[in-house]
Amino acid sequence: METVTLHNISKTYGKGATPALKDVSFSVNKGELFGLIGPDGAGKSTIFRILTTLLLADEGTATVGGLDVVKDYHRIRSSVGYMPGRFSLYQDLTIEENLTFFATLFGTTVAANYELIKDIYRQIAPFKDRRAGKLSGGMKQKLALCCALVHKPEVLFLDEPTTGVDAVSRREFWDMLQQLKQQGITIVVSTPYMDEARRCERIALIQAGSILSIDTPDAIINAYPGQLYALKAAHIPHLLNDVRGFEGVGQCYAAGEYLHMVFRSGSEEHLLAFLEGKGHKDIILKKIKPDIEDCFIRLLTTTHQ
Amino acid sequence: MRTLRLLLEKEFRQIFRDKGLLPVIFILPLIQLLIMPLAANFDVKNINLAVVDRDHSTYTQQLVSKIASSGYFHITGYHNDYTPALRQIEREKADIIMEVPAHFEQDLVKENKAFIYLAADAINGTKAGLGSAYLTSILADYNNEVRLKWLPAQPAAAGTVDLRFSNWFNPYMNYRLFMVPGILVLLVTMVCGFIAALNIVKEKEIGTIEQINVTPVKKWQFIMGKMIPFWVIGMVDFTLGLLLARLVYGIIPVGNLALLYMFLAVYLVALLGFGLLISTYSDNQLQAMFVAFFFIMIFMLMSGLFVSVDNMPGWAKVIAMLTPVTHFVEVVRMIVLKGSKFSDIQFQLLVEVMFAVVLNGWAILNYRKTS
């Protein structure tokens, strides 16, 4: 069953500007953990703002929980939880006051839905009398999640919840999302970090207002055509230039300590001979499995061409 | 209702937690009320007078002692020549020079007339104007005394017309009595106008409005939640100011306090509507601050607080009438000084109600939860 749907949504901020969203369509199933993966400025926040009824699309229709985002905006507002990309709670109120405030605004109490938030709230409860503005990044994010969950929403929209949060807190946060999913809440989450894509059930890769691909992370990786190689030598910057100068190489880019590359026509032996001729030492060339980032880069170049 | 109460609770909590804002709201206006009426005082006393006496007669001495005893003048120099007296003016030691020519007494007795020369330093226009006016009237008085001495049998023969003034509602022309109520209006206007203008923008700037907008809170609830606290603050500020006016300046409103507060209540709604309107058009606090500052500046200068609206040219009068502050300044003075009744202020009240409806209606229409 589809809980969130978008049909041909387009949005341009201001006349003559570059469109923020171009003809975007996708749907999220009930109880799914769905990820919107893309760099800054891809249009992720715009999608969230349209789905949470804060922004009107120029074209297209969208529904949340079977309700139209334009006509039934009022009912949607009481049934979704939204955590904006920027910390948007009252910094001069305490943790407890913020939570009570949002619970009451939704016509409920913290106690009524405590079951849902207790695992997260327990971690910040020792500081419940501290003002939100004085919390660390990770605690702010946990509080924001509690506030977005306190009215037991059907759908949870999380706009870049892990941006600016340390690696440990990020991992914890994704664990919390997995637990929430167990409770049957549909979660739509966006992130610019490709490595987090694997934690989602299905992902949409998005770039410059268009969806490049929607599928499970595994399917997207399996759809990678051809063989990906990792290449390394003593002097990486020179290596990148030289490989790009080699006729038979299709695409080559730096990825961590290795270069990732695919062949267009050439073979391993030819390349190695070519590089040795250029004076490179300690050359390692091995076949690897692509990750989401490789898929994203390939999709980017193919759509540009 | 529960939602509204919650919003009010939150708003008050935030206001009372803001340690920087609290004194600005409650203490600064009172300090201003203590300072501004004293500074904006048009009463002139202690005018420094340099006397140039070329006559050295009994009449001159009588004249000078009469001037000195009037209480307005302070004789700073007694010279034989004009030049040293002028030097006194140049050094700002004297405001006015009075020169008594040689043979003053002789001329007065023999020829029945004599001249006196007055020179005022017009750099301080008020002091010069009022000082020479006081001095002229003292001279006229002196003149009469001289006549009486000479013609004791027939005082009526002098045949001069004596004009006597009586100022209504403020018999002693106490400047403070006139200024303090006006300044009180100004302070309430500044405090409430600015905090209302800045508040919703603050939520926009910090991003909290984003989180509020996705909740089922209704537009009117949100706006009422913002308006009521500032309305209460305005009421409290005005009351504190009124108490201060009574304790420090001895100003006790002649008119009905309930009437005054009724007008204040309506005025505050209009003013807060103005603040909210600015708030809905601005993207950040800086923008809101500048726009609010621009308008409040116009309100102050055009409100008739310093310059009477009746003295303005036609077009300026129109602008003055189009600001809510003008009417309130007028009404506060009417009620406090004159003891005006409801029937006297109903026109102003009607105008203020219109301001309240238009400004708030506009603000509510312009505040949208969806962009």
TrEMBL record, chain A:
PROSITE patterns: ABC_TRANSPORTER_1, ABC_TRANSPORTER_2. Keywords: ATP-binding, Nodulation, Nucleotide-binding, Transport. SUPFAM superfamilies: P-loop containing nucleoside triphosphate hydrolases. It comes from the Bacteria. Residues 4-233 form the ABC transporter domain. It holds the Pfam family ABC_tran. CDD domains: ABC_DR_subfamily_A. GO terms for molecular function: ATP binding; ATP hydrolysis activity. Belongs to the ABC transporter superfamily. This is ATP-binding cassette domain-containing protein.
Automatic annotation (TrEMBL), chain B:
This is ABC transporter permease. Its main location: membrane. It comes from the Bacteria. Keywords: Cell membrane, Membrane, Transmembrane, Transmembrane helix, Transport. The chain crosses the membrane at residues 21-40, 178-201, 228-252, 258-278, 290-309, 347-365. It is a multi-pass membrane protein. One of its GO terms (molecular function) is ABC-type transporter activity. One of its GO terms (cellular component) is plasma membrane. Residues 132-370 form the ABC transmembrane type-2 domain. The lineage of its organism: Bacteria, Pseudomonadati, Bacteroidota, Chitinophagia, Chitinophagales. It comes from Chitinophaga tropicalis. It is found in: Cell membrane. Coiled coil: none annotated.
